[in-house]
């Protein structure tokens, strides 16, 4: 069903500061944005901006009420998945028990048609369908750090086998690997459509407030050593001097959250 991950959306307490961070650290360019209407996704509304760097996109959302947001932090909010045709995708999703927050999609400032799933049917997390316009906005595409795509969104989950089974049932997912997690628990990778998800069960799942919690984003770079150098030149730091290889052969190196506005992100070099 899904062709790619179009973007990760973040809540921020200061939109202008977040835009500047992406410009400074990833060489991103602002591609558009504007007011955000009040909705279940953003109660009270607010304003947003889209930034592009390499071949990827991020959406930054400043709610009207930022009192509950930590300062200077990118708080993961949603994942946008690209489909070729929203009505077709909706019809298929409904046969799997999914519902949506509206009957028809809305068009965002980049001309993308967007339709959110009802989080009651997606383990409480926000995801949306995205249909790209015939002439996509290319402002900033190819700029800055050369990230090729978003390989996956990562989630903390209470029980990895149950989470795997959910993706298999709902999205025809294929469990491709996993094992002991470097964070003390266990993990799994599931491919579905042309995208992937990483599921991480912490050492003590009882500490989780919800069954599924957004955790990180994985950015693909053709050569991770080049990506590391590009990031380092822009003042980004990493948690180690060299990448590790995960259970499915991906080389992975996380950014230091002290310099990444508190958000977990990693560079990824795919095997082969």
Structure overview:
- By secondary structure, the chain is α+β, with helices and mostly antiparallel strands.
- It is globular, with a radius of gyration of 18 Å.
- The chain has four helices and 16 strands.
- Strands 2-3-4-1-5-8-7-6 form an eight-stranded mixed sheet, with helices on one face. Strands 10-11-12-9-13-16-15-14 form an eight-stranded mixed sheet.
- The mean pLDDT is about 95.
- The protein folds into two domains: about 5-130, 2,3-Dihydroxybiphenyl 1,2-Dioxygenase, domain 1; about 150-270, Roll (2,3-Dihydroxybiphenyl 1,2-Dioxygenase, domain 1).
- It comes from Tectimicrobiota bacterium.
- This is VOC domain-containing protein.
- Keywords: Metal-binding.
- It holds the Pfam family Glyoxalase_4.
Main sheet overview = 8 strands, mixed
Described by the principal axes of the CA atoms, the overall outline is globular
Count of helices? 4
Largest beta sheet: strand ordering: 2-3-4-1-5-8-7-6
Domain VOC: 4-132
InterPro entries: Glyas_Bleomycin-R_OHBP_Dase (IPR029068), MMCE/EMCE_epimerase (IPR051785), VOC_core (IPR037523)
GO molecular function: metal ion binding; methylmalonyl-CoA epimerase activity
Keywords: Metal-binding
């Amino acid at each position: 069903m899904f062709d790619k991950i179009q973007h990760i959306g973040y809540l921020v307490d200061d939109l202008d500061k977040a835009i500047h961070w992406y410009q400074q650290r990833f060489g991103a360019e602002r591609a558009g944005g504007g007011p955000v209407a009040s909705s279940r996704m953003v109660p009270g509304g607010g304003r947003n901006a889209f930034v592009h760097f390499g071949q990827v996109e991020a959406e930054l959302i400043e709610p009207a009420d930022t009192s509950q947001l930590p300062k200077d932090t990118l708080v993961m909010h949603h994942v946008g998945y690209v489909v070729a045709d929203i009505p077709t995708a909706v019809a298929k999703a409904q046969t799997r028990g999914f519902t949506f927050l509206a009957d028809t999609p809305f068009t965002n400032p980049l001309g993308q048609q967007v339709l959110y799933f009802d989080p009651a049917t997606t383990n409480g997390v926000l995801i949306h369908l995205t249909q790209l316009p015939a002439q996509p906005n290319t402002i900033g595409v190819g700029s800055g750090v050369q990230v090729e795509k978003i390989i996956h969104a990562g989630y903390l989950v209470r029980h990895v086998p149950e989470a795997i089974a959910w993706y298999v049932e709902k999205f025809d997912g294929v469990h491709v690997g996993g094992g002991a997690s470097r964070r003390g628990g266990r993990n799994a990778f599931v491919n579905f459509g042309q995208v992937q998800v990483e599921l991480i069960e912490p050492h003590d799942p009882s500490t989780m407030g919800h069954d599924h919690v957004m955790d990180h984003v994985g950015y693909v770079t053709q050569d991770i050593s080049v990506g590391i150098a590009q990031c380092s030149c822009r003042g980004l730091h990493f948690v180690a001097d060299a990448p590790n290889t995960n259970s499915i052969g991906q080389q992975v190196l996380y950014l230091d959250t002290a310099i990444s506005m508190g958000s977990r992100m990693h560079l990824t070099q795919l095997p082969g």
